[in-house]
User: Which sequence fits this backbone?
């Protein structure tokens, strides 16, 4: 539909959607983008793309874009368009007033994984240096924070271990809680190619996702577990490895902490962790678990790929550590074709975490209480920094309701729609005295805001995104900023200055130079190098001047790999007679997250509403026919959606996507969250489903 006209120039840039990070040539006729052409030399995609990257860029020029800064005294007042200067000084004044009344720690901010590394870095610096506290968190809190905790604890750094190309060397591929066909299509194609060449596939997922059986690809094992039993399944797999003599003893002896390994070996060998003992809990036949464990441990190079079906659970961090245990025990880490790989949802989840978006860490995952690191940042930034970790997003909301947290800077993130337990979130937002939203559209969160900073789309940005394989890709401006020529990082710097902290850069490239100066894993990164040599995978340092496709080759980042005990603890969210079904969530190919972008493109034609997938028996029991409107009631609330009867679902489990605000699936998700990181348990909600009278 966009492909008309003859281009007279092109700009090489990076897709703004998923964590694959495909490179594209934006082809233009004058100032008009006429098509996006996948770049054949793109490190992540090698000329491939999906329907989102190729077609869903029209939101950049959508009529809903807000292009002028706006302010209002109260959220019931109409918005007033003002100059950038006025908006910035108004925001600064309100933030300062809050701090005078409630203290330095009464304000904070949230960074976005949709923004560039440079924009994210600027926001976390605004909070640490100008706000004077560490109350910065990221939207990754609600998706991959358990990856950060789990991989850092076991291996020493918070990142996937492989490049995407590595899958071409895999003999066994274990996909857990991910649906790459829809979520990461270009990587899925690469994976399917390897499967067609003969690699074996194990899928662990409650739903019969496309990979289980698609043209020319069939999983050897589909471990169709009950939602919420990931850790039990992983312990059962490990039990087989340990009790059937499948441990790679030489690897473990050389590469891992001996005492922790011995403790772990004893723990998983206990009979209560056997596939037979756990069969009733997981719902997976013990024989299947045994066969899958043998295949993973003895089938050659075995790689794990996982998604939010791993992390968005009350034991998300435990599960990440359980996967690391299994990979280390079988020697499946530290070379091509193996490893543990999070498939990141958003384009810059990896980057936003790398850039110091967590309340306890500076860029490069260094703790704020580390005196040496803090001194380094204090010297460079010329300001005293707090050694106390700040508030996480859920703690900010709790403190807002309780009265001690009163102001929030929200970068490109629709927290009112994407965070769990929407009612609690909106109560927190309503309680705040100043919310600044920096975004393209007046999203759901903006309804609670007092200041709106119009943002820039990826077609207007200059900077970098870091994809799921740690690849730092350049994002180049294809068109002029539509918001009066204000780069997002520049608006943030001006806000910092208005609050009394002198933060200034001449360009996004300047910001990257500072990142490289202060972050060892980015030491050799600069725009000049990226422009000259193409993308690079961090760490880029003296030991790896050209980057690092595979991590932990000679040793783990933490030295020796650390096995962790991964006791299975069932979620508090239980089914009962009132709520007998489990609701789990996911996405589809043509849409992206809460749909703020894709719904404003022609991709919306492919998916106009979210639907509830339900097994035929569960539907029949409730008198539900395909297409009927059904109400889904949880302990937290209710929503109404059309039903889609589907044998992809097991009995007792229902599923929906969350791309449309009207479906509001987060209205019904629970308060449960990962014990280590507070990542919400989106994947397990006990519900009842009934036919609705609503048309
Ligand atoms: Fe590539 Fe992901 Fe963009 Fe699709 S959405 S083009 S797979 S980066």
Assistant:
């Amino acid at each position: 539909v966009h492909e008309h006209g003859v281009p007279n120039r092109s700009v090489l840039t990076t897709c703004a959607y998923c964590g694959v990070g495909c490179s594209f040539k934006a082809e233009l006729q004058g100032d008009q983008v006429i098509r996006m052409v996948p770049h054949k030399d793109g490190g992540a995609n090698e000329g491939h793309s999906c329907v989102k990257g190729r077609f869903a860029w029209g939101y950049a020029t959508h009529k809903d874009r807000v292009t002028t800064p706006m302010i209002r005294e109260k959220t019931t007042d109409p918005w007033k368009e003002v100059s950038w200067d006025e908006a910035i000084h108004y925001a600064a004044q309100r933030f300062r007033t809050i701090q005078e009344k409630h203290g330095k720690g009464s304000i904070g901010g949230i960074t976005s994984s949709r923004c560039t590394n440079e924009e994210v870095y600027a926001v976390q610096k605004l909070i640490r240096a100008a706000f004077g506290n560490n109350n910065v968190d990221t939207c990754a809190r609600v998706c991959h924070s358990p990856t950060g905790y789990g991989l850092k604890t076991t291996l020493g750094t918070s990142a996937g271990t492989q490049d995407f190309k590595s899958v071409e060397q895999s003999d066994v591929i274990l996909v857990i809680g991910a649906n790459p066909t829809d979520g990461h299509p270009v990587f899925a194609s690469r994976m399917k190619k390897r499967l067609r060449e003969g690699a074996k596939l194990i899928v662990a997922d409650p739903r019969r996702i496309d990979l289980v059986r698609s043209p020319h690809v069939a999983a050897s094992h589909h471990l169709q577990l009950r939602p919420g039993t990931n850790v039990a399944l992983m312990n059962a797999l490990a039990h087989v490895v340990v009790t059937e003599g499948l441990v790679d003893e030489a690897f473990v002896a050389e590469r891992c902490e001996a005492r922790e390994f011995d403790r772990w070996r004893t723990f998983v060998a206990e009979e209560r962790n056997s596939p037979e003992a756990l069969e009733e809990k997981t719902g997976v036949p013990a024989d299947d678990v045994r066969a899958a464990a043998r295949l993973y441990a003895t089938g050659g190079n075995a790689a794990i790929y996982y998604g939010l079906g791993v992390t968005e659970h009350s034991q998300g961090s435990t599960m990440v550590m359980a996967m690391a245990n299994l990979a280390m025990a079988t020697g499946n880490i530290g070379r091509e074709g193996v490893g543990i790989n999070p498939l990141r949802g958003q384009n810059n989840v990896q980057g936003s975490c790398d850039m110091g978006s967590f309340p306890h860490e500076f860029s490069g995952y260094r703790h704020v209480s580390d005196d040496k690191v803090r001194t380094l940042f204090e010297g460079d930034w010329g300001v005293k920094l707090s050694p106390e970790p700040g508030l996480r997003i859920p703690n900010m909301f709790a403190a807002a309701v309780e009265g001690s947290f009163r102001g929030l800077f929200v970068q490109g993130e629709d927290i009112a729609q994407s965070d769990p337990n929407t009612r609690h979130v909106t109560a927190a937002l309503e309680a705040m005295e100043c919310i600044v939203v920096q975004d393209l559209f007046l999203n759901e969160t903006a309804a609670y805001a007092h200041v709106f900073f119009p943002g820039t789309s990826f077609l207007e940005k200059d900077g970098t995104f870091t994809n799921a394989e740690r690849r730092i890709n350049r994002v180049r401006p294809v068109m002029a900023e539509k918001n009066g020529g204000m780069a997002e990082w520049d608006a943030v710097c001006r806000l910092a200055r208005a609050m009394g902290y002198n933060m200034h850069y001449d360009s996004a490239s300047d910001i990257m130079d500072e990142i490289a100066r202060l972050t060892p894993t980015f030491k050799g990164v600069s725009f000049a190098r990226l422009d000259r040599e193409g993308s690079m995978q961090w760490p880029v340092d003296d030991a790896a001047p050209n980057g690092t496709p595979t991590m932990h080759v000679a040793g783990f980042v933490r030295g020796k790999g650390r096995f962790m005990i991964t006791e299975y603890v069932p979620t508090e969210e239980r089914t009962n007679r009132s709520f007998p079904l489990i609701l789990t969530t996911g996405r589809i190919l043509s849409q992206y997250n809460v749909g703020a972008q894709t719904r404003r493109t022609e991709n919306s034609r492919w998916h106009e509403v979210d639907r509830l997938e339900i097994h035929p028996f569960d539907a029949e029991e409730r008198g539900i026919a395909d297409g009927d409107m059904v109400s889904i009631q949880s302990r937290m609330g209710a929503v109404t959606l059309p039903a889609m009867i589907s044998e992809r679902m097991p009995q007792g489990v229902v599923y929906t996507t969350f791309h449309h605000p009207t479906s509001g699936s987060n209205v019904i998700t629970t308060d449960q969250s990962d014990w280590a990181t507070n990542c919400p348990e989106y994947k397990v909600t006990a519900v009842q489903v009934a036919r609705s009278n609503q048309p």
In short: The chain has four domains: 9-61, 83-143+347-522, 161-342, 581-691. The pocket of iron/sulfur cluster is lined by residues 15, 17-18, 20-22, 45, 49-50, 52-53, 184-186 (CB under 6 Å).
